[in-house]
Amino acid sequence: MELERRRRAAEREELEAAKDWADILETEAAAMRCLLLKTLPIALLVGALAGQDFERERSELVEEVRADVRYTSRQLGREELDSTVLGALGRVPRHEFVPS
Questions:
Q1: 31 with 70: CB under 8 angstroms?
Q2: C-alpha 44: how far from its chain's center?
């Protein structure tokens, strides 16, 4: 009887832990969507500025993304993005995707 009660209590604890993880993952997904929606207008603006130094603009974008990730690190569960993601943000010439 006591063993069965303990087993059920352990199952309830596991279920609660799984719900906590689901909440954390949903929060992380929402934070990433917010981050992407926030950086898209910046990328479009950088592309729209004809004659600008796009290298400098991309570098500023990467720094802003880094700052946003640090600011939302508790929700994301990480302090920074993968270096390959940041590298891609710094290399992709976004100005070529916006019609002149």
A1: no
A2: 19
- Burial-class residue 89 by CB neighbours within 10 Å (0-12, 13-18, 19+): buried
For 38, 79, 85, 99, the CA distances from 67, given in Å and listed in that order, are: 12, 10, 14, 29
Q: How far apart are the C-alpha atoms of 66 and 60, rounded to whole Å?
A: 10
d(CA 83, CA 63): 12
Single pTM value for the model: 0.42
Query: With contact defined as beta carbons under 8 Å apart, do 38 and 68 qualify?
Result: yes
Mean pLDDT of the chain, nearest integer: 76
> Which has the minimum average pLDDT: 2-6, 34-38, 48-52?
48-52
- Whether the per-residue pLDDT at 91 is higher than 50: the answer is yes
